[in-house]
Predict the structure.
Amino acid sequence: MSVSLLDVNVLIALAWPNHVHHHAARRWFEATSGEGWATTPVTELGFVRVSSNRKVIPTAATPGTALEVLRALCDLPGHEFWPDETRLAQPPFALDRIGSYKQVTNVHLSALAAKQRGRLVTFDRGIQNGLHPGDQGLVLVLPVT
């Protein structure tokens, strides 16, 4: 199995018990984190930004608290940090297939996951539309039941 790159929404759901998808993220993480999981500069910055935004999370943390939570997550077994030199303007991005601004970051992260021989883990079902058909195996969309 390959290392899983968690997108911002999965990181948020994993960290905050009051998140609507916390149990889904926790269930997946407990079952698979031993295979390795990763963060990037984009996902770490996004985590702190969203975690401290009261417009998104009514019980938002301060940026300092969010950073402490991120550090605790990254101390869990199996974590890898992936530097990011992936350029949006170069393949393998299917720019003509990106249907929404909401997909841009995850399409970028899926390209980074491919470069690292990993996979992107997300709740975003629409991400498949932004990938070439042969690249759809690079993404795992978590069920939210």
